[in-house]
Design a protein that fits this description.
Elements lengths: L9 H6 L4 E14 L2 E13 L4 E9 L2 H14 L2 E2 L12 E5 L2 E7 L6 E2 L2 H10 L4 E7 L3 H13 L4 H8 L4
Parallel strand pairs: 7-8
Antiparallel strand pairs: 1-2, 2-3, 3-4, 5-6, 6-8
Length: 170
Amino acid sequence: MKPTTEYLDHGAVEELQNMNDQLLSVNRCAATMKGGRRFSFAALVVTGDRSGHVGYGFSKARQVPNAIEKAGKDGRKHMQSVPVTKDGSIPHEVVGEYCAARVKLIPASSGTGIIAGASVRAVAEMAGIRNLLTKSLGSTNPVNLVKATLHALSQLRTPEEVAELRGVEL
């Protein structure tokens, strides 16, 4: 099941300040041509402003710096907003899936830090989450773990949103 994300329009992306990129992986790909192998590089980058907006980019190019730059631009195009509580955690427990990767995100008390692997940690840090417990189940593919984490974050709801859905006042 592919995650449904709320994409920000290009005007909103320009308003977002202090965007940071974090490089997760660079893979070398080879295509066999008449004269030998031709190499290209694929980069996975997580982009965020560390205050509730995060996205990821995956891109290929003939040189590593070009691949990283293209992936960063792709990440800025696919930003997603994330609700973060005042103590730097998430509002409730959630599970995200993408292909064979499953990620369970559990809220943590203040001072815990981010207990996660490299892929999930990068997404959480770029989203501005400071306290989080996670468990990765299934695939360890970094691209699928990032997508599963973003799927989990897209399912989060604030207490106000839940109250409005139920027709109850807080």
